[in-house]
Amino acid sequence: MAQVIADRRDIDFVLHEQLEVGNLSKSSKFAEFTKKTVDLIINEARNLAVKELLPLNKVGDEEGCKFEAGKVIVPESFQRVYDLFCEGEWLAMTEDPQWGGQGMPRTVALAASDYFNGANYPFIMYPGLTHGAGKLVESFGTDEQKKIFLKNMYTGKWTGTMLLTEPEAGSDVGALATTAVRNDDGTYSISGNKIFISSGEHDMVENIIHPVLARIEGAPEGTRGISLFLVPKFRVNKDGSLGEFNDVVCTGIEHKMGIHGNATCSLTLGGKGNCIGTLLGEENKGMKAMFLMMNEARALVGQQGFGCASASYLNALNYARQRVQGKHLLKMMDADAPNVPIIQHPDVRRMLIKMKSLIEGMRSLIYYHGNLDDLKNITDNADEKAKYQGMMELLTPIIKGYITDRAFDVCSEGIQVYGGYGFISEYPQEQLLRDCKITQIYEGTNGIQAMDLLGRKLGMNKGKPVMDLLGEMNKTIAAAKEAGLDDFAADFQAVVNKLGEVGMHMGTTAMSPKVLNAFAFAHPFMEVTGDVAVAWMLLWRASIAAQNMEKAKKKDQVFYEGQLKSAEYFIKAVLPVTLGKMNAILNNNGAAIDISEDAFGGK
Amino acid sequence: MAQVIADRRDIDFVLHEQLEVGNLSKSSKFAEFTKKTVDLIINEARNLAVKELLPLNKVGDEEGCKFEAGKVIVPESFQRVYDLFCEGEWLAMTEDPQWGGQGMPRTVALAASDYFNGANYPFIMYPGLTHGAGKLVESFGTDEQKKIFLKNMYTGKWTGTMLLTEPEAGSDVGALATTAVRNDDGTYSISGNKIFISSGEHDMVENIIHPVLARIEGAPEGTRGISLFLVPKFRVNKDGSLGEFNDVVCTGIEHKMGIHGNATCSLTLGGKGNCIGTLLGEENKGMKAMFLMMNEARALVGQQGFGCASASYLNALNYARQRVQGKHLLKMMDADAPNVPIIQHPDVRRMLIKMKSLIEGMRSLIYYHGNLDDLKNITDNADEKAKYQGMMELLTPIIKGYITDRAFDVCSEGIQVYGGYGFISEYPQEQLLRDCKITQIYEGTNGIQAMDLLGRKLGMNKGKPVMDLLGEMNKTIAAAKEAGLDDFAADFQAVVNKLGEVGMHMGTTAMSPKVLNAFAFAHPFMEVTGDVAVAWMLLWRASIAAQNMEKAKKKDQVFYEGQLKSAEYFIKAVLPVTLGKMNAILNNNGAAIDISEDAFGGK
User: Fold this and answer.
1) How far is CA B153 from CA B123, B136, B567, B578, in A?
2) Could you give the CA distance from residue B50 to residue B409 in angstroms, rounded to a whole number?
3) Which residues belong to any copy of the Acyl-CoA oxidase/dehydrogenase middle domain (chains A, B) (predicted)?
4) How many CA atoms lie within 13 A of A282 on its CB side?
5) What is the CATH number assigned to the segment(s) A8-154?
């Protein structure tokens, strides 16, 4: 059975019918990205993903990365596909062509990435992290740093990483112990130990560029004293040629539950010789620089989780259509009734429509989040710019935290649909679940995302982004009524109103002596906010479907029917549960906080 | 950090304070199982589990089973521990001493198994399946079959399996194609291919006894024509010595997500020579025999999932107490505030109390289910016997389906508490999740369990078991009020009443033209029933805690505080969500059923 990745019809729907991405070409910035060009880009991305990336997914899982004599060896077949990916200029789709990017709208890049991440995201992490590291150089680098590093990174000649975590500094980045000592020539000698470094060492390219968080001698404790440095594996001469080894030593790789194709490295800097770095940005402003990158990095993780879920859904759907097992429920007593494909069984349909509605709502939400960035980039209106930026930041923890949580659920159901075969490595489903799991953890655990939503985003700019978001939801409600979906609109309106109430409750509780209770419900709060956001996207989709149904071709009508059913399922069978979750939040129960440490037991 | 398995104080609480298992010794059947004896048994089980089984868990996962030249080789260290387990007479704890059992109450055996399953359930599957196969021989075998096989199985000299599944007959057992041809001497020649056979082949014992489902030539199609046969790997002579190889050939083992220590085999019977079996029970009554065993087999799977969850919780708790990361939330702005163990962070506490309350509720439910069997076995009153049997059957899909679903959730949270370390194979958490996953699938997927609850158990005996169960819950409500827990009792009462309403709705819908809608909500119905059952157990526990708090020793008071907090959390923060799920069920939405197959997309 052929593996599948993402539903092209659905991608096109979001791009062209929901977000009307072709309109971006009216701006000078995106003038060349007409609908036709966009479609060609997605075609190319799909081809590369299906033909080249997808077949490597199992190879990466089974062969994994090997650590031998300080070197990391990736599966042999990775090299060719890495080169193809870079030749196709997919590494820095949204970036400035001056530096090797393609200047593409983020919305379009996300659609292309839908295929890449769904096909083989452990592999895509090599170029993906390179892009993120390059973005740091572009945003904070001196002209010289950019000249030396940037194009080589955006074209994939060199790869990049991100060195934050240390054994005693995980979620608490501020506890890091890596030090930087200023040399006479203005460079710094870095020393420390970093762990969990994705793509930290490998043999696909000649150099690896590490942005490193470290503390300059004498700098304050905590996050206020952290600076960002650029540390190449091999030093780079002024003419761009490679110099000597920079004492970035890989001391081992992790054996882990999933993403075996990506090397998770422990790195020692300056352990034996001299590890030289240059300051990236200002002294002691390293955390600020990281935070500026975080929207993008966290959104990327949301896409990774989503990619696993999208593939898991389509695999399950294919399997359910082909696997014949048991009679139809209405013909159980008829001895002569034939066995049927399991898609005809009610419980399998329940799993499939649950997966479908989540996939569709989450895809829209991811593209919408990217689209806000595009809209921000093409408007000259400062208020609009601020509005788009605010909504984007507000939605980031939802994209990362909520979507990866739900993606994991979808991958789990994707195994259940396969029954026993779902547990067997011969089939793709169990790997997708294992790979998906880390997306709930890295780039800030989902608990951290929930704290970000409650602690930073909810009250940001006196709540304006929240009000803006609720305002957009109300526009969708009006559109739904116009499309004749009054029943769905009314149900959704009630949930939006209640979300407002819950948000107010959380905001005031977080400012009260009951602040700990509030944070014990930060994660449930993220969950209900995400539920409402997905319902919003599905209602929006259904409104378009209802409006266009009559005049559509038969094949489109079937797709639109699917849109109406996804919305119906989510609104009628999921939102009642969301309301229950909101009631639990409003209860504001303190058991989790009040219980003494010893009473948790286990001693 | 030492790994842990199960909380002894909690086990003792359920055994002695909640179920008062010592009272069973008032019966002649269990006279020797006084409280003191019970405690000694649990001590021994714990010792064996902690010292011998637990250290092999990672070995089993990493070494796994090897398939070489038709033979399956288990990790070398398994043999010694298997022998120790059998010497300790743990294989058939509840069975008749005449056949090598220990005649132990099931409740006590479950407490011992709590340690075994939590320590290393992939290993325990070898003796566990042997016990199940032996039980079939005991229940349906002729005197001769018992004489030849039973004691050798219950003592673990030979192991057993269960040969049901075939490539085209998974959930639909009735589709199986294995045939049996009667020979002149009354034996049968069996031929067919079986897959997914746990412990199907290995090198720890000299013989393996396979109960096999097959169809006798000329028998009806479907489940009505299935018979059960006893097929040894090596034939057994009348004097008990081993005869020639019986042509049960292992053709391969599966590579799978978890339970690597247990060999999942494909077996071909009668492919080359002659595979001889003897009829076990009556012709064409094979499915009936299997169903009689199902309560026990399914409950065992619930325990396996629970074992993973119990270990995952205690590991997470230990980790949260020791891992220092970040400042206390109330001192975030204080630069001099020390970093604290993560158990002090609200979101970590939320995860821990969620895990704790589920573990405790599920442990009580599992023991309660076993206790019903004990109570049934010691009463002479036919009505009581029927009552206990009915409630046990009603709860079986909850024990298997609901508990393994929640166990998987707990294992997933258990990874989150560890952060990045949770994903690393050096730590126990990721294996527990992988091992846990199959418990949602085998012995009937959880979708099948939900259908069993709705289709068979809800209306069984005109709903008497349901009424009995609700009656028991009402007794607990009365006891809670007596203990001064009026608030909890009132909340729980409302949910029990609503469960009655939902049950009625499901029952009538399942008998109406909307039957497909009903079955599309079978799984949510199982979920809410399970939630209520867990809340019931927690309220019961809390009532005991409240009653005994004042006079208790300090250490017990802390434990009782934990009981009150678990109940409070579940009632105040989980049951509102359960009510939301019930509202979703009552909506009875048909989107999952009405959507056309094509509208699921993906084409």
Assistant:
1) 16, 11, 42, 44
2) 24
3) 162-269
4) 4
5) 1.10.540.10
Helix (H, G, I), strand (E, B) or coil at A20: coil
Nearest CB to A425; choose among B255, B416, B565: B255
Q: Strand A226-232 to strand B248-253: parallel, antiparallel, or no bridges (unpaired)? A: unpaired
Domain spans, chain B: 8-65+74-154, 159-284, 455-595
ipTM of predicted assembly, 2 dp = 0.97
Does the CB of B318 have a partner CB in chain A at under 8 Å?
yes
For chain A, give percent helix, strand, coil, nearest 5.
60, 10, 25
In what helix (H) or strand (E) does residue A232 lie, and over which residues does it extend? strand A226-232
The H-or-E segment that residue A373 falls in is helix A346-378
- Give me the pLDDT at residue A2, please: 52
Count how many residues are written for chain A: 603
Burial class (CB in 10 A: 0-12, 13-18, 19+), B168: middle
* Option in A437, A559, A572 nearest B587 (CB): A572
What tokens does A240 get?
Answer: 């761009």
Distance CA A485, CA A506 (A): 31
Contact: B515, A329; criterion CB under 8 Å: yes
Q: Quick: pLDDT tens for B81-115.
A: 999 999 999 999 999 999 999 999 999 999 999 99
Contact, B215 vs B192, CB < 8 A?
A: no
Of 3.30.460.10, 1.10.540.10, 3.40.350.10, 3.20.20.370, the CATH number of B8-65+74-154 is 1.10.540.10
Give the C-alpha separation, B358 to B413, whole Å.
12
Would you state the structure tokens that stand for residue A404, as one six-digit string? 């990866």
Instruction: Pick the closest to residue B571 from A520, A595, A582, A591 (CA basis).
Output: A591
Question: What pTM was computed for the model?
Answer: 0.97
A491 HSE (CA, 13 A, CB side): 23
CATH architecture label of A159-284: Beta Barrel (2.40)
Number of Cβ within a 10 Å radius of residue A44: 14
The residue type found at A234 is: F
**CA–CA distance, A597 with B562 (Å, rounded to integer):** 9
Q: Residue A191's beta-bridge partner residues?
A: A179
Write the pLDDT tens digit of every residue in A21-37. Answer: 999 999 999 999 999 99
Give the residue-averaged pLDDT of A150-162: 97
Provide the shortest C-alpha distance from residue A184 to chain B (in Å).
Answer: 32
Q: Rounded CA gap, B175 and B347, in Å?
A: 49
Q: Is B550 helix (H, G, I), strand (E, B) or coil?
A: coil
Segment 542-561 of chain A within 8 Å of chain B by CB: 558-559, 561
Element (H, E) at A553: none
Rg of chain A taking only CA atoms, in angstroms: 25
